Amino acid sequence: MGQIRKSAAHLVLCAVLGASGVVASQGAGALANEKTVPTSQAEISLSFAPVVKKVAPAVVNVYASRTVQERRRVSPFFDDPFFRRFFGEQSDRFAPRSRSRVQSSLGSGVIVSEDGTIITNHHVIAGADEVRVALSDRREFDADIILMDERTDLAVLKVRDPDGAFPVVPFADSDGLEVGDLVLAIGNPFGVGQTVTQGIVSAVARNQVGVSDYQFFIQTDAAINPGNSGGALVDLKGRLVGVNTAIFSRSGGSNGIGFAIPANMVEVVASAADDGGIVRRPWVGTSVQPVSSDIAASLGLERPSGVLVTRIQDGSPADRAGIRVGDLILSVGGTEVDDPDAYGYRLATKKVGGTTKFEVMRGGEPFMVEISLERAPETVARDTREIKGNSPFTGVRVMNLSPAVAEELRMYNEFSGVVIADIQARSNAAYVGFKPGDIVVEINGAEVTSTKDLSKLTAKRQRTWNITFKRDGQLRQVSLR
């Protein structure tokens, strides 16, 4: 018998049908299961239908509705002082009237558990009073919101009163995804009904998308449009590699640049639904910055790589493990990190309570260190206070900053101080220009170390207010009379 050859057509067919096993390729010593591209018309005519039949039943349409109060003016003159002066109380009947209106939003979701657990996007069901899901077989169910995680733009739903086991899409290891891999996007664009589009992975680890805290997205040219949000991005084995979440578009339609949240992050949020509905993320107590070409040269590197440690919280897991300011973190859990977004993503996909290995470089010498993955602690009581009275801070809600509070407020480079958590609209503080996340440092020369300090200092009448505060790591000063 001559040498056995299996064509690229067979390789693609194996992928589509989910077959497994060692496949011989052209050339002695080639790796098993080598990825190939179509080389003939027969290979191009192969169909993705088997994958779609396997996955589509587990992709649902999500209908979210919320009741909002609308203010409606009966007359445009109701707030004119001249008008009110002559008509007095009668003008009240011209005042804005409130009426209820139901807003609806449409998206998609993916069933990830036979009990009817569904993953979708946070922005699809944000503020919803009622959620209903429709399956591809036309069954419809009410659904409860189990978990909402704005930081990842993910949410978990649970079918109410299920009538049996549901079809599911299994998770893939999204770290194994490569640029050029074929993928299918399934969802309900523009409400036209379940739609399947095909494309390739255009990029991985894409950041600067701006739809969640964790800027680490799969980019694909598979057509994604409004209504696809929360839908499935699957590989040719019918496994979930991502949840479609955003598009880059000037027209509102697909321009071939779509973004999906990687499945490894999705799985973390889905698992949290069974853990009290709270996403617990590891904290190691470091602040990091990108490595520029100048920094790389100063460290003797051929090219920029890793992230540079700029701050370490005293007593944190990183501190206890011996990490120092100026160290270069090259990898987390065996995976390289080349920017702070990748570093944050790698930590966020680890489980709290375990340990992971960091590859660190110090003085040009790499070494490995094992670091505990813990929850961010509340090292000082937050002592939340609302500032009232008559001062530039009237209308703010402040807290004592700790790693736990910093985590909640998405402040990843600050460990201590008094932070503005919220500001009332049209208040003195809003007029001055303070923003949530500002850290109050000093008032009229007096250091502010706690919310109690701030409360006392703002209770005193002052002719002049000289205020020092920190915003985005930079100290700022303002003087008010």
Give a written overview of the molecule:
With 481 residues, this protein is α+β, with helices and mostly antiparallel strands. Among the domains are: 174-274, Trypsin-like serine proteases (Thrombin, subunit H), CATH 2.40.10; 286-373, PDZ domain (Pdz3 Domain, Roll); 385-480, Roll (Pdz3 Domain), CATH 2.30.42. The protein has twelve helices and 25 strands. Strands 19, 20, 21, 22, 23, 24 and 25 form a seven-stranded antiparallel beta sheet that branches. It has a six-stranded antiparallel beta barrel with strand order 1-2-3-6-5-4. A hairpin with a 2-residue loop joins strand 24 and strand 25 (474-480). The longest helix has 10 residues, at 8-17.
Count of distinct strands: 25
> What's the CATH class label of one domain?
Mainly Beta
- Which structural category fits the helices and strands? alpha+beta
Q: What is the CATH homologous superfamily assignment of one domain?
A: Trypsin-like serine proteases
Which word captures the global form?
globular
Query: What is the CA-atom radius of gyration, in angstroms?
Result: 27 Å
Q: Total number of helical segments? A: 12
The rounded distance between the terminal residues' Cα atoms is 96 Å
